[in-house]
Design a protein that fits this description.
This protein has 185 residues and is an all-alpha fold. The protein is built from eight helices and two strands; from the N terminus they run H-H-E-H-H-E-H-H-H-H. A two-stranded antiparallel sheet has the order 1-2. Helix 1 crosses helix 3.
Length: 185
């Protein structure tokens, strides 16, 4: 399915239902690479995938390991930590380079336990996406710590990109297709 087709299927209801599984919702056991790709794809494909740019592939994961953006698997199995890293990477690569994402992750886990940092990322991303589609601002920006403000801005960039794609680019593509139809009549 092309990016255009995926975006046509996204509506306000689907955006309000957007959910990334939390640390406690991850599989209780380590999983293999095929299972990992399927798991990530299930949650993220409706929002950030296209035929030209899949959410994740085995090759991408292997490259992230080689680049040391994520830890290497243990006996070809991937843990909760890997899943968390990859949800963050898949989401942020829509607006940031892999190198920048690696820096953001490293800086975060230096100060926060990975499960808590990941859950905070998910909650902030979901709120940002919902708020941008409802045209609401994130409350209490002036009362945030530097780390909270950074996280807010990181996830806001993803939310803003999704909004532009759904609200403007989707409509522009539909208008172009409509004009082409009328020219052919």
């Amino acid at each position: 399915m092309s990016k255009k087709k995926i975006l046509e299927n996204i509506n306000e209801t689907k955006i309000n239902e957007f959910h990334i599984p939390r640390w406690s919702e991850f599989p209780a056991i380590d999983i293999y690479l095929d299972q990992l790709v399927t798991y990530l794809d299930t949650y993220l494909n409706p929002y950030i995938s296209s035929e030209e740019n899949p959410v994740i592939t085995k090759t991408m994961i292997n490259n992230y390991v080689k680049q040391q953006v994520i830890p290497a698997p243990t006996k070809k199995k991937y843990s909760r930590e890997h899943i968390a890293y990859l949800f963050v990477i898949c989401t942020l690569k829509q607006v940031y380079s892999i190198g920048d994402i690696g820096k953001l992750i490293s800086g975060t886990i230096e100060y926060f336990e990975i499960g808590k940092a990941y859950n905070r990322f998910c909650a902030n991303l979901e709120v940002s996406i919902k708020n941008v589609f409802l045209r609401k601002e994130m409350p209490h920006v002036t009362q945030m710590t530097e780390e909270q403000y950074l996280l807010k801005n990181v996830v806001q960039a993803v939310a803003d990109k999704l909004y532009v794609e759904v609200k403007f680019l989707k409509k522009s593509n539909n208008k172009i297709e409509e004009r082409k139809k009328w020219k052919n009549i």
